[in-house]
Design a protein that fits this description.
Number of helices: 0
Strand content: over 45%
Largest sheet: 4 strands, antiparallel
Strand order of the largest sheet: 3-2-5-6
Helix content: under 10%
Length: about 80
């Protein structure tokens, strides 16, 4: 069986929500040092961190089949 294809989001601020390709993924972040592991299809994805009504971080990433891509949220950086 192939390895799962995953995006691992780490460093999201407490109380923020992770959105993957425009859809909320999982619950709000309880602590900023707890990574969220998202099982995804291989290909290009948009990761956004929402805090209230604001998008506090955005990153476009590509994950190959069976890869694990780590997205490190840098507070105050919106690219």
């Amino acid at each position: 069986m192939p390895d799962p294809t995953q995006i691992i989001v780490t460093g999201a601020p407490t109380g923020s929500l992770v959105f993957l390709d425009g859809l909320q993924s999982g619950r709000s972040t309880a602590t900023n040092d707890h990574p969220q592991v998202l099982n995804v299809a291989a290909g290009a994805h948009k990761v956004e961190i929402h805090l209230g009504d604001a998008v506090v971080y955005r990153e476009d990433t590509y994950v190959g089949l069976g890869e694990r891509r780590v997205v490190i949220v840098l507070s105050g950086l919106n690219r």
